[in-house]
Amino acid sequence: MALDKAWGSQEHGASKKLQVMVQVNTSGEASKSGVLPSEAPDVVAHVIGTCPHLKFAGLMTIGKPDSSVRPECFQILLDCREAVANRLGLSVQQMDLSMGMSSDWQQAISMGTTSIRIGSAIFGQRAAKVTP
Q: Does pTM top 0.70 for this prediction?
C-alpha cells in the first residue's frame, strides 16, 4: 500500500505508526468515497496484516442526510464494526467510529460515535465554494 510505504520512509515512520480510519460508503451514493460495507472486514484485515507502518484505528462514514433518531447510514457503520470485530477477533471498543457532522452530531453521539467532523456548528454557515 502506497500510504504504508510513504509513512515508513519518513524519519518518524520507523518509530511511530500512522493511525488510519477505513472509510465505508454507507449511503451507496456515487458521490461519496469509501469501501462497500461488505468489503470492510477484508480491507481492515489487509491494513492490519500487511501494513506494518499503519495502525488501524477504526471506521468512518459520511452518511446521507437523515433526521431520524437512528440514521440508517450510522446503523450500517455499527454493523460493519461488528463484522470487522467478529472476523478479526477484535473488541468493538478497540475501534473508533467517525460518523456525524454539524447537522447530525446528536444522533451520532447517541449511537456511539467516538469522533465527529464539525464545521458549521462552530463557525456558522459559510458561502458555498465556487468551482472554476
A: yes
Determine whether 32 is exposed, middle or buried from the number of CB atoms within 10 Å of its CB (0-12, 13-18, 19+).
Answer: middle
C-alpha cell of residue 50: 500487511
How far apart CA 66 and CA 70 sit, in angstroms, is 8
107 phi, psi to nearest 5 deg: -65, -40
Give yes or no for a contact between 63 and 99, defined as CB atoms under 8 angstroms apart: yes
- Rounded to whole angstroms, how far apart are CA atoms 96 and 56? 9
Cα pseudo-dihedral 62, 43, 112, 114, rounded to 10:
-80
Is residue 72 a contact partner of residue 59, using CB atoms and an 8 Å limit?
A: no
d(C-alpha 102, C-alpha 117), whole Å: 7
> Scanning the structure block, which residue is given the C-alpha cell 478479526?
88
Give the model confidence (pLDDT) of 39-50 as tens digits.
999 999 999 999
